[in-house]
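Service request form, structural biology core

Requester: graduate student, group of Dr. S.
Request type: structure prediction, single chain
Budget code: on file
Notes: please return the result as structure tokens.

Sequence provided:
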Amino acid sequence: MSKFTEFLDKKVSGPMARLAEQRHLLAIRDGVISALPFIIVGSFFLIIAFPPLPESWAITQWATEHAGEILIPYRMTMFIMSLYIAFGIGYNLAQSYKVDPLSGAQIAVASLLLTITPTALDELGFVLPMQYLGGNGLFVTIIVSIISVEIFRVCKQRNITIKLPEQVPASVGRSFEALIPVTIVILLMTLITVVLGISLHEIVQELVAPLVKAGDSLLGVLIPVFLITFFWSFGIHGVSIVGTVARPLWEVYFANNGEAAAASEALPHIAPEPLYQWFIWIGGSGATLGLVIVMLLFAKADYLKKVGRVSLAPSIFNINEPVIFGVPIVLNPLLIIPFVITPLITATISYMATSVGLVSATFIKPPWTLPAPIGAYLATGGDWRAIILVLINITISALIYLPFFKIYDKKMLAMEEGEDTAKAS
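Core staff response, request fulfilled:
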């Protein structure tokens, strides 16, 4: 086992951990995370506009009549998430290069806006279509934000900037330092979008269409689930590694589902990130709430009883580091097996239940620390069947963990009894 662990650490987990620390991937991850408050708050206005209540109720009728006004906060937040994400990516990437992060953020936003051609309307003048400011524009957002900050960095490092005397206020000096990079970015994006008439969004959508389709399949769900638990088994934060790569896809699915819900259309995607959060990672990565329940009900070893009691409250709110490192699951060949298998099974059940319409797809993003039944109910727009599915998955996870835990508990109990005997003698 030690040789196998050493091989995985050197050949697999080590390189993947370094990949997760790559500055551009970190900027993408942190940029997306920085937009989460707007996405979460904006998505809840979808519930207000389409309340999960009978149509005959007065509040439902009122919401239907005023849906357009209710959805305005949604359209100014989640519906244009790419705008916020561009700012976040630009800021974090510029900060990693130790150049002015605010200038980097503004350049990224400008480059994104210049990928969209304004439309002339007689009664309104020029308007900016919002079609590519949501999830549909996320891939272009990532690309142009990174390119823009790289141009800014090169100009700064090679002194292709305008420098003012030291007596000038720092904020004014930074603005003039960004003048030449901003000029280059604006001219470049204008050349592409206006002069050449190239739609980066249409090109990128065609290129990533197979990837988007594959990620929304059952296999596309099972692969990240396996990788996340695999890395966690060796003490490496699996979500940080896999999520950094997969989250842009998940956000596209989530945004598309939100837009479909706002238009009262069928939700196109099964696998936005809330599917993982509320139906697969119940209690945290590895669906460990089932293991905690098993510990509370069946543990005979004093140590595991204590770990179960301590871990219950955090697990209810999807925090499972006390379980992963306390039981432990990390580098525990016996418990790694159900830790990996359990979410693969619950993921398959959840995917199939959603695909055949037994449970609604997710299009709301509640705070991740909510208990799973509540989070699942809200994430599906108030589908009570989501609560049933969560309870089924918790039961399944407990049943899978049970036989492995009993073997481990027996070993721990024997160790404790051996220690007690040694102390007595």
